[in-house]
Amino acid sequence: MGPHLTIEPNDRSVGGAASAVGKGVEMTSVLLGEGAQSSEGPADPLADFEGAIAADERIEPRDWMPDDYRKTLVRQMAQHAHSEIIGMQPEANWITRAPSLRRKAILMAKVQDEAGHGLYLYSAAETLGTSREELLDKLHSGRQKYSSIFNYPTLTWADVGAIGWLVDGAAITNQVPLCRCSYGPYARAMIRVCKEESFHQRQGFELLLALSRGTEAQHAMAQDAVDRWWWPSLMMFGPPDDESAHSARSMAWKIKRHSNDELRQRFVDICVPQAEALGLTLPDPDLRWNEERGHWDFGPIDWEEFRQVLQGNGPCNEERIGRRRQAHEDGAWVRDAAAAYAAKRGTGRPAAQAVAQEQPRAQAQTQDQHDGETAVSPR
Amino acid sequence: MTRSQDTPAGGGAATRAEAALDSPLLPLADDALVLSHRLGEWAGHAPVLEEELALANIALDLLGQARVLYSQLGDEDELAFLREERSFRNCQLVEQPNGDFACTMVRQLFFSACQELLFGQLAELGDPLASKAVKEAEYHRDHAEHWTIRLGDGTEESHARTQRAVDGLWRYTGELFEPLPGPAPVGAVDWAALRAGWTERVTRVLTSATLTVPDSPQSGAWAAGAGRQGLHTEPFGRMLAEMQHLHRSHPGASW
Ligand SMILES: [Fe+2]
Ligand SMILES: [Fe+2]
């Protein structure tokens, strides 16, 4: 999934693993009852946890945390990871038809990035004791969800641009604040992810710009894609604040930093001038600048459509999950073979790790692709 | 778009296009493009997430190689999107459908083992581009080699699938060593040495994978070198149709 705008380079979460571990050790020793230092009697883990949240400190894997905090995080990280890998499908749909070699390279690199995001996020979820295997199983059996946006089809080449610009753009708006999420591994994963999502957003914008300034047919293709992707993108921020089930608690725990409606407004405000720069219109007759609020007003969102897609009645729900399951089932013999081979060699690593050797190179290369290919910035 | 060496050149563009068709770089570029495209078809279907990254890496390397080579011959998009099937010079091995993961890895092993040796020779002959590409080919070969060994020596099922892939693709390997006539450095390649090096390497990998090296011929009834002459297998036409359709639907448009 991709989102993005700019990320805050000075974010404190870049502190790195060393400092994170240091803090974990410190807190653990408190929890182990070396509370003699404290004049207030036995350590209260909940108070420590709440103190850390209040002080804007990071919670690390070894720190004590309330069960609900852990569950909320696992659910959110899993859903995010699933969205990354399901999100590969609508765009992969165009890799074999990309209309120029340059676009083909950019698109392949992008879809590869999304796989990488999935990997980071599954790893972050593993720090809370939930294996990738387990999470994939929940995805495949429908017990965990992924972002509904990916249940819409990519019908033309311009959809690749619209996804980059709007879907990655909305995801960035959502995810930049997550770089300051209270859970350390998640926050750190988001920093890496957001950097790449911002490339995707710019590339999508640039793709649409080329179409918009191209032939009449190309321009029409771009407008049609924006018409279809605009409203679903606004739904990516989730239900309105007064109907959002988990929002308040997530905000209190600093897993979430801004409300759904706040982020949605931020996104609209960013997109309106960008659409103008693209020479394309947004399909909302109610869109107008509100001097008093200092924001763009926009029309009502069709929440019934949102609920329908969420419940599985979107245009591609079955196809997306079906293809994911199929890929997993088709790959079972490969994972079994890797595990069997590793067992024979006495390394005993599970299949996923037995094949995990390629990652560092993959990421390095992706960066090269980005550096070489990003031409135009939306802002 | 046929190749007509007897016809005097018409316009400048035609001359250039025809010169491109005769260049020994074109088969190398087409090999890279076509295999990259096939690997791109895996996106979203790989058996593990790590392989999504690895297959995309290899595909991106190959696409990069193709683009560098095409740019020496003319316009990359014209060469990729506006030629007909009979003008493509890639070997038949790279156009073979992905099949299962064993098939894809064995195809990669056969191809990259050759490409590594070929680019190695070109680098020694002083081709500056080959020295970067040889490192890529080495990584691709290494990746495919590891998987071939794991799958061959994994479970009974993976062994059977991998042997089937080796047997099925074997007849496309002879074409890899058909000399590509033309100016140096490609014209100066020692193809016999390349074949010997390839055979030695592939035999070693298949053996340590507990697989059997086929004793069947390395080319089919259509003589080896068919792909180099623009004679392809049926799935290739459909692959091109998909790849070229959008570009051709908007003549003259830029993307
Ligand atoms: Fe992503
Ligand atoms: Fe993205």
TrEMBL record, chain A:
<dbReference type="InterPro" id="IPR007814">
    <property type="entry name" value="PaaA_PaaC"/>
</dbReference>
<dbReference type="InterPro" id="IPR052703">
    <property type="entry name" value="Aromatic_CoA_ox/epox"/>
</dbReference>
<dbReference type="InterPro" id="IPR011881">
    <property type="entry name" value="PaaA"/>
</dbReference>
<dbReference type="Pfam" id="PF05138">
    <property type="entry name" value="PaaA_PaaC"/>
</dbReference>
<protein>
    <submittedName>
        <fullName>Phenylacetate-CoA oxygenase subunit PaaA</fullName>
    </submittedName>
</protein>
<feature type="region of interest" description="Disordered">
    <location>
        <begin position="343"/>
        <end position="379"/>
    </location>
</feature>
<dbReference type="InterPro" id="IPR012347">
    <property type="entry name" value="Ferritin-like"/>
</dbReference>
<dbReference type="InterPro" id="IPR009078">
    <property type="entry name" value="Ferritin-like_SF"/>
</dbReference>
TrEMBL record, chain B:
<dbReference type="Pfam" id="PF05138">
    <property type="entry name" value="PaaA_PaaC"/>
</dbReference>
<protein>
    <submittedName>
        <fullName>Phenylacetic acid degradation protein</fullName>
    </submittedName>
</protein>
<dbReference type="InterPro" id="IPR007814">
    <property type="entry name" value="PaaA_PaaC"/>
</dbReference>
<dbReference type="InterPro" id="IPR011882">
    <property type="entry name" value="PaaC"/>
</dbReference>
<dbReference type="InterPro" id="IPR052703">
    <property type="entry name" value="Aromatic_CoA_ox/epox"/>
</dbReference>
<dbReference type="InterPro" id="IPR009078">
    <property type="entry name" value="Ferritin-like_SF"/>
</dbReference>
<dbReference type="InterPro" id="IPR012347">
    <property type="entry name" value="Ferritin-like"/>
</dbReference>
